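Sanity check

After download, print the first record. It should look like this:
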Amino acid sequence: MTGGRASLYGSDFQHNATIRLRIARSELHRSLYHDRPHARGQLIEIDMSEAQWATLISSPNVGDGTQCTIRYIGGEIIPALPDPEARTKQSAEEFKEASKRTVGRIKTVQERIDSMNLPKGKTAEIKDALDMVIQDLTANYPFLAKSFAEYTEEVVEKAKQEIHGYMQNVINRAGITALQSGPLPLQIEASNDDDG
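Expected structure tokens:
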């Protein structure tokens, strides 16, 4: 299937092209010495990314199988999936939550230090060092995480462009090789008749 933008289960981005597989009951009709199958009663329809399709074909029966997106099953249309959440955004949120937990633990340690009745100079020195860690976690690291997320998105986009270009080049070379190695498609062969 080509065209549009599809969100697929198990995929981190939207797809312009998918592999669609339909399975239906079949009736076999015989006429004029030929068997003709006719689909009757669709059972299931799934979509897969090209990468999921390749995994299905090249690595069957591995683990729990290959992920796919169910579109139709047993007479019921399955609602489309929402657009995938950017993994970089998800990772940034997870980092933010982890940082909050760590800051909370550091503040607990600072409170325990206060209750230890250490000399004021030593207490202040330890707490100042912990304050610097808190500042890194709340101010500096989120900026680094955001910068890394932006960089990662650029790398992913460039990688997709490189892969698309490579695949296009492979297809072009395969087509040229096929054209050079044999008769051209739909080529009409010359007649051997003496009539011309």
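If your output differs, re-run the checksum step. Summary of this record's structure: The radius of gyration is 30 Å.
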